[in-house]
Amino acid sequence: MSTSDEPLPAVEFIKERHVRYWLRCLQSLLPMEYTTNDSNRMTLAFFVICALDLLDVLETRTTPAERKDYVDWIYHCQHPAGGFRGSTILMPGDASRSTSGKTSRPHVRWDTASLPNSYFALTMLVMLGDDLGRVRRREGLRWLSCLQRPDGSFGAELGPDGGVEGGRDMRFSYWAAGFRWFLRGKQGVGGASGAQDIDVDALVGFINLSETYDHGFSEAPGLEAHAGLSYAAIGALSFLDRLPLAAPEPELAAGSVPAKRGISHMDGTLRWLLSRQRTDEDEAQDNTGCTSMARQVAQLERMGELDGAQEHDMPAHEEYESMHQPTHATVIHMTPSPQNDLSIITAPHEQSLPDGRRFINAGFNGRCNKTADTCYSFWVTGALSILQHENLINASASRHFLLCQTQHRVGGFGKLPGDVPVKDVLHSCLGLAALTLMHEPGLKPLDPTLCMSVAARESLQRLDWWLSPMVD
């Protein structure tokens, strides 16, 4: 067999090592680097429980008594005014009580519910098999409505005077829409009929204003598009059932106003998301301030090759190479978009090694001119999955990046190639989630909007209170 015909080494997902990694995270003390995140222990716990659920070992490698303890701890973090705290460490204890036994006021400043931790609490309860029966749904929805600002965005928590505090970026829009989805149920009412709702149109308006000129989504209006925030925007629209309709909207009754929807240009958003996938060669060659994938799209459009192009229509290798001056040959494949008959780049790119062997290695970055990072494999693939266009990525190239570049021998994933995952449960979990969306054997199917298993979502959707309005 010639050198150029030799197969590449098999790329392997080492499931048991990942299982042991996550069990260590669950059952032993986390490294000291996590100490500063102790007030957000709920968020750290979410990544651990989610990963074990996706690995399909949450029920087999933990006992019913342990899972009950996890559920009880989550409920212990529930705030009486609605929502969930991030940890128990800031809850008022005996020291905050006066001699009369009444709770004194100083603790109010720091004993608050947090929006991200509230969303993660609900997802964990569902993954652990709880029916959310002890969740203060009415109080939670009232608290949520108080977190919304006049521009439609959401903050992280309420201050002592009732004012909205914390960030306003797109992540909070996602958590708010998700928290509402959990508590209001299929009919939008759940067990809280008559409870105050958020201003959905204002939230959709905030998301729409955050769509950028290149049809990604930014932190807030007027800022740069970002893959993680684009996922958050698309996920929020999905929770709210405000994504663009696949078919014309049914005729409305007289006097009715059509629902405000997000994403002004679907093909543009798909193009921007797909432009986030890049090879190692892109990282070395791209000094233009934009991804080479987007640059290739523009160059091919100028050459008249983009519309209806087939592989045999591509420019000659010498001409194509002169456009990029790459160190190795690059081949681009295109497929027609289902909308507007546009053609969209679907895959970077096969590369050739100096000995003639080809390999595929293409992760995702978060912004133009940035390096590939494990978490964006999920943010981009997840966003495309919500839009039902995940088939447009080069899944094998993304899988190769994750398993050959950022998967660690002890289990888990680093943020970047060579990083150690010991102190990175976020990237380790999102690496698994990305593989799940690419149908990796041994992992449970994932709901891309919720970032939890389809099985967990279905268990929620079978609950009586979630299926039907309940007057209470």
Short description:
The chain is mainly alpha-helical and 472 residues long.
Element layout with pairings:
Blueprint (H helix, E strand, L loop, with lengths): L14 H13 L13 H14 L9 H13 L38 H13 L9 H10 L10 E2 L5 E2 L4 H15 L15 H10 L17 H13 L26 H9 L2 E3 H6 L6 H11 L14 H8 L5 E7 L6 E10 L5 E2 L2 E3 L9 H13 L8 H12 L18 H13 L8 E2 L4 E2 H8 L2 H4 L5
Antiparallel strand pairs: 1-2, 3-7, 4-5, 5-6, 8-9
Helix pairs in contact: 1-2, 2-4, 2-15, 4-6, 5-6, 6-8, 8-13, 13-15
Describe the structure.
There is one protein chain. The chain is mainly alpha-helical. Helices cover 39% and strands 7% of the residues. Strands 4-5-6 form a three-stranded antiparallel beta sheet, covered by helices on one side. The protein has a two-stranded antiparallel ribbon with strand order 1-2. Strands 3-7 form a two-stranded antiparallel sheet. Helix 6 (170-184) runs parallel beside helix 8 (227-239). The longest helix has 15 residues, at 170-184.
